[in-house]
Amino acid sequence: MDRTKIVELYRRSEELGGQAVTVAGWTKSVRDMKNFGFVTLNDGSCFKDLQVVMNREALANYDEISHLSGYNALVCTGTLKLTPDAQQPFELTAQTITVEGTCAADYPLQKKRATVEFLRTQQHLRPRTNLFRAVFRIRSVAAAAIHSFFQERDFVYVNTPLITTSDCEGAGEMFRVTTLDPKNPPLVSAEAAEKSGGALTAGDVDWSQDFFGKHASLTVSGQLNAENFAMAFGDVYTFGPTFRAENSNTTRHAAEFWMIEPEMAFADLNDYMDNAEAMLKYVLTTVMEKCPDELAMLNKFVDKGLLDRLHHVATSDFARVSYTEAVKILEKAVADGHKFDYPVSWGIDLQTEHERFLTEEHFKRPTFVTDYPAQIKAFYMRMNDDGKTVAAADCLVPGIGEIIGGSQREERLDVLERRIHELGMNPEQYKYYLDLRRYGSCKHAGYGLGFERLVMYLTGVGNIRDVLPHPRTVGNADF
Amino acid sequence: MDRTKIVELYRRSEELGGQAVTVAGWTKSVRDMKNFGFVTLNDGSCFKDLQVVMNREALANYDEISHLSGYNALVCTGTLKLTPDAQQPFELTAQTITVEGTCAADYPLQKKRATVEFLRTQQHLRPRTNLFRAVFRIRSVAAAAIHSFFQERDFVYVNTPLITTSDCEGAGEMFRVTTLDPKNPPLVSAEAAEKSGGALTAGDVDWSQDFFGKHASLTVSGQLNAENFAMAFGDVYTFGPTFRAENSNTTRHAAEFWMIEPEMAFADLNDYMDNAEAMLKYVLTTVMEKCPDELAMLNKFVDKGLLDRLHHVATSDFARVSYTEAVKILEKAVADGHKFDYPVSWGIDLQTEHERFLTEEHFKRPTFVTDYPAQIKAFYMRMNDDGKTVAAADCLVPGIGEIIGGSQREERLDVLERRIHELGMNPEQYKYYLDLRRYGSCKHAGYGLGFERLVMYLTGVGNIRDVLPHPRTVGNADF
């Protein structure tokens, strides 16, 4: 079918005005004014609709079309008429309209203004609504912008594996991946246990008989794998799914979500922050440029401060403050009468209320908090010269709190080994990771950006279930 | 650190010639000629190296550097000297060289020409070799090209979920995803079984107590979910991981691999083939343009026909032949004395030997075989008017065989329901899928491209384990 997408009509209206075109899409509304009528058609290629004008006299099946309701698939051929004085820049005067598919009377999205809660039960249909059309196009444009940002800077995209047999990731609860008989799994025999010299316990599940010959799980982070590639390609990034088997039923947590994890060789904490700030601004700017209609709708109906906030973030320098300084700011706020639910003192893990105070009330812009106490951060973060803080930085943004976490990595073999030992971890499990420090180690840094958090930020949508095509959360993996 | 990547030196050598620059990277070789020496440095930003020239007199730590062996991280500052008459267009005359990280003497990649089998045991280090540098950069460039191709055509990128509770995917064996106690899973009580009216069996594992409240698996395809979005956005694509728990230990199968699954509304079988052909040519052309050094190396050491084949495919029209016609061609070949291991007759599923004969010997170019017998294809493929073939097409390429499978989807509710019934499938499990045919159904088509197959094709590498950063296959999920 030689059809023109509606987005092309908008791009090339000058050229196409007065021409015959064929457009295929779905009805958003049909109005019958007796001798003429209007079909509002959307084909998903852009947020904007096309107004199709039909005349009873000129259209053989005028009655068929004018009686349609709900979501019908039509193919419309006609002349594109430029209407410079009307609200829309053009309309299509229909010569023929063919019905590809009608809409059964029990269409679940008939009524205007369905709640987002109801729409979560209609995940196969909700992309047809204005809200989800906007959210999922912005998601797609943001994802493409992330690839462009890193590719333009010669980063190599690495697909780190999702199935892992390392039990040492430590960033969260993991899902098991298995093909063993769930009811009668093979068990370790007394003989095998004895042979193993204490490694195996008789009567435990015998994972050596599972698909991968070991106990396997879904990864919580691709970072350690990404470092393998950073030590060859210099700058790399991942962009893929990640999992958490945490029983947390909040608006910000999903069991399956997408992460971007860049890793940069010959880079320190400032290099990471420079890169992350540039990346966020690049994505914001791209979305503002490519999705003005989507953002305008979201700004009107979802979050009235959205456009202001995006403009503000895209143009302001992010603040950078040390954790130690941040704690002083929070302590002063408490002394001045500000109430927090959680007490503040050096050594605490900052709570969302603290993060939001810093970014929303104190700095009033995105803020990197740097150099956290070692004991509240991961083992691989680089120890600072003070011996008690590490070169980590979290990026906090107004309205959300933490959106990025990152650090310079410990590149010194002896320091990293000592840290693994101190934390009672098993160095055997980190052999490959330590190898990177044995052979051509260098200063390097990286970070993780939760993609859904970013999409929530870009759209003003408050629940992670509404920015994932088909969200997976505790008790929910339908569709 | 204000460093310049080696790729930038090549891009901007005119401008940077005679200037002081700092370059950070790893040693590929160090040669000491007594009073002067050479360091071949690579920083991963491009395939090309930088030659660093050091003079004993001018470099304070000449002895330290000239004695390095293996893979050492260096930061070199000096003057970029253009050498228009030499093999390399420029070299760096070092003023200072700082060692960031040395290389322990037991570096596993010391010896030249390690086998790919050995390198699979060194997955954290193998990206440092020329072969894997080439493969994984091409993988990254190809992935970015795929996103560009679809984004330029206004396709929406959809992240379909990996965890699924549909047991109805049918495209292959699935991995179970669970957080139940593996040894003592909860079992369905006699009481619960009775209450369920036959749906549950007493003594079976009680999946209602698992994380998602149901039995969950890793998906084998995002297609059915992608269709949900195609019926709203028109043109969509997925690009993400997919899983098969198949016990097949071949050079072409992995348990975890990446797929691209475009889905297009108002499109028929020819539209899919046009799109897929354009996409493959776009990716090939982009890789040839952006990775000439990588391809030259692969053409020299891995597959001497690689460049010829890529040029040929990028510039030739793909053949299109019906399955029925293809069977006649194969039958004629048999009659003419060609030997196949598997017999040929109408109704068989084509074997790799048949596919390769068609694309390599008969058509001598990529070939779409169309309109397969319904009984060897999936339930969702559109029934042709003959009542025995479906509007499916596989794309076969010389040297590989099938690289893409796709079809027009059955958009007619009654025909689809009848097919589900005939195949003894449970229509309840397809409620959402059938809903798409109830409300605004339209002609649509889509396809699946296995990304690793494509990377194998682009690089000439014969084993899927060598195009995946960290491959997962039966018995292997290390790193």
From TrEMBL, chains A, B:
EC number(s): the record gives: 6.1.1.22
Which UniProt key words apply to this protein?
A: Aminoacyl-tRNA synthetase, ATP-binding, Cytoplasm, Ligase, Nucleotide-binding, Protein biosynthesis
Q: Which reaction does it catalyse?
A: tRNA(Asn) + L-asparagine + ATP = L-asparaginyl-tRNA(Asn) + AMP + diphosphate + H(+)
| Keyword hit for ATP-binding | yes
Where the record annotates domain Aminoacyl-transfer RNA synthetases class-II family profile, the positions are 112-469
Q: Where in the cell is it found?
A: Cytoplasm
Q: Which InterPro entries match?
A: Aa-tRNA-synt_II, aa-tRNA-synth_II, aa-tRNA-synth_II/BPL/LPL, Asn-tRNA-ligase, Asp/Asn-tRNA-synth_IIb, NA-bd_OB-fold, NA-bd_OB_tRNA
Main localization is: cytoplasm
The UniProt entry, under PROSITE patterns, shows: AA_TRNA_LIGASE_II
State any single GO MF term.
asparagine-tRNA ligase activity
Which GO terms fall under biological process for this protein?
Answer: asparaginyl-tRNA aminoacylation
Q: How does it assemble?
A: Homodimer.
Q: Provide the protein name.
A: Asparagine--tRNA ligase
Annotated family: Belongs to the class-II aminoacyl-tRNA synthetase family.
